[in-house]
Amino acid sequence: MIKAKDIMKTSIISVTPDTGISKAVKILLDNHINGVPVVNEQNELVGILCQSDLIFQQKKMSVPPIFTILDSIIPLFSSRKLEEELLKISAASVEQAMAAEPVTVTPETPISEIASLMVEKHFHTIPVVDGTKLVGIIGKEDILRHVN
Prior knowledge:
The structure is a single chain. The protein is 34% helix and 23% strand. The protein is α+β, with helices and mostly antiparallel strands. It is globular.
């Protein structure tokens, strides 16, 4: 059975939480990759930054729905969700735009499980961790290379 350790890339391009957005965009474009793991100084995975996270910044901010009754304004939205969306749209660093606590696999995860995650969750890039340490990365092309 093919496992993550058999197909993962171990020469990993990564960024840190304090990396600027423009630098992260350049890294993704220059390396023709969809996502990049975000690691701290101990090489522990703290998030993942994907093209979709950066495209989110170009999103038009929608007007939050409200309900008014007797001169009272009642919000029909979560203020926390609105705050998170505003932070992501205005992100200046990777930490503000990344997805924290990304879905990961271990080196022993079977390729079938990785493929299922990619299809069901619409992931393009999945980090491989041993404990909290980033040890590899798997993209859709890595799966395709092992299709017979």
